[in-house]
Write a structure and sequence with these properties.
The termini are far apart. This protein has a single domain, classed as Sandwich (Immunoglobulin-like), CATH 2.60.40. The longest helix is centred in the first third of the chain and has 17 residues. It is flat, with a radius of gyration of 22 Å. The strands form 2 sheets. The chain has a 4-stranded antiparallel β-sheet with strand order 1-6-5-4, with no helix packed on it. A 4-stranded antiparallel β-sheet has the order 2-3-8-7, with no helix packed on it. It is mainly beta and 141 residues long. It contains 1 helix and 8 strands; from the N terminus they run αββββββββ. β7 and β8 form a beta hairpin.
């Protein structure tokens, strides 16, 4: 078996090409926009309405901000992690800091009837569809 050694720059250039190809593809289109450590979100449709479940372990309910406009919902907040003084941190996998997510939904929302429940680090958003966005039956004469 013959093996060849690739120089360190060859490996870096290959990685750069792979990243550029990924960014040039359309895999990011029609996705959510976010900044910071992103909380995972699942979105379901129940009849005409939408249900969003957001995992926010360790986030204080008072630090959350939720805004709705037309067919988007914005969830922002801050997760803090406190370490005692004088420690030596050997591994840090827990994310913390500010986050800001905007979800684009396939329906227009009734912002006045949105309900939010937060329990045990799980945020449930009940997002009713706006009446003027629901399909109407047309009577044929």
């Amino acid at each position: 078996m013959i093996s060849t050694f690739a120089g360190p720059f060859d490996v870096l250039f290959d990685l750069q090409r792979a990243l550029e190809e990924r960014l040039a593809s359309d895999w990011l289109h029609d996705q959510t926009a976010s900044l910071g450590p992103f909380p995972p979100i699942n979105v379901f449709q129940q009849g005409d309405d939408i249900l969003a479940i957001v995992e926010l372990p360790g986030v204080d309910k008072d630090s959350l901000q939720i805004q709705a406009k037309e067919n988007t919902i914005r969830i922002a907040g801050k997760k803090t992690v406190a370490y005692p003084e004088g420690i030596s941190l050997h591994r840090c996998e827990r994310t913390f800091g500010e986050f800001d997510r905007t979800l684009s939904l396939p329906v227009k929302l009734n912002a006045d009837k949105i309900k939010a429940e937060y329990r045990d680090g799980i945020l449930a958003l009940f997002l009713p569809r706006a009446e003027d966005d629901k399909p109407r039956s047309i009577k044929i004469n």
